[in-house]
Automatic annotation (TrEMBL):
Coiled coil: none annotated. The keyword Oxidoreductase applies. SUPFAM superfamilies: Aminoacid dehydrogenase-like, N-terminal domain, NAD(P)-binding Rossmann-fold domains. It comes from the Bacteria. Belongs to the Glu/Leu/Phe/Val dehydrogenases family. Keywords: Oxidoreductase. Residues 401-423 are annotated as: Disordered. Residues 181-407 form the Glutamate/phenylalanine/leucine/valine/L-tryptophan dehydrogenase C-terminal domain. This is Glutamate dehydrogenase.
Amino acid sequence: MEQRRARPRRTARSGTDEVNAPHLRITWTDEVTGVVGHLVVDRLRRGVASGGVRMRSGCTLQEVTDLARVMSLKEMVVFRPGDRYHPFGGAKGGIDLDPRHPEARNVLKRYFAAMRPLLEHHWATGEDLGVRQATIDGLMAEIGLRSSVEAALAQVPDGADAGLRRLAGAFAVTVDEIGLGDLTGGYGVARAVTTALRHLGERVADTRVVIQGFGSMGGATARYLARHGLRVVGITDADGLVVNPDGLDVETMLRARTVHGGINRDRLSPGDRELPGDAWVDVDADVLVTAAVSWAVHERNHERVRARYVAEAANASVTPGAEAALAGRNVVVLPDFAVNSAANAWWWWTLFGDIAPTAESAFAKIDESMDDLVGRMMRAAAAGGVAPRQAATAIAEANGEAMSAEPPGTEPWPHGARLPGSG
């Protein structure tokens, strides 16, 4: 297992060389299969970094590094001084393997075993692309850890057991046949999109949307955009695109969805049509939601985007070059670390007791958080004549400075306080 330190790089803000590299980068090779995995800790806060682990064929160290940086921003951007949870640093794990490979679970177990010292003390993780939380939970038990967020448990104000009970209770909740843990991210994306549209003076009802991806993030985003009154005219999975200009029957598609986020073609409505997988870029829609892989919109396909708004439900799903080109066409990109932050934050709000382990409490907190964050982002972007990403980055960095200014040892909660839902 090789540990790598990145060199200092020149930053656009200061124009001087400064250390802005990840805190730690690790490349691991599985001794059984030769599969390569990575872990990047972008930064630590209070000794801990947060970020999921993904598995996909072609996953690279650079991809994981970029995603870890996004996680640092995602953590900081949701900071609220009144919350019991104060954000951690950002991290990300990644394994270069198709998650459908017969050895995938065993490789993931050996990866976790190799990373165990970090999992115990510094890296709190969870599901990401190609990896389900239920699989992670089972593997944590097999390697002798209580939870995939073991590294954070010592900081739960009313104790690890109380925090884990809240998480277990929250993950046991279902809403219309789907677990709450699979809904919070997409629920937040839908709220972010509708809030942004209203700030821009757009009519939300019957706005057309195409969603690239139908896993937990894409599926939940589709559900809640439809419930907000938007018309979902296209959804993709690994096998292609399904479109209907009159609107897809999202709930029927969700009930028939496969475990890997596949669309059941046998359950399509009469007006639905199947198109090749990359046709999602060309769909005539007002909003494009990227909810699958990183760098989905890039230098070779951005000219085909017909939507006026792109919402990054998947991390790092628009390349910087493509985003600049889209901005030149007045296409607004809503950045990943802002619009898809709810899933990550929900874990921490629940563990630390900022919300009760119920759907009502989770959705209310997400509504409040997204309305505030996206509203501030869009107002700052308009006032400064900058893109939403720049505005959101400034919010995150200001939050980070506010957290760094706290005196050493300061706790944002009274030790032993009784928390909502703690039983």
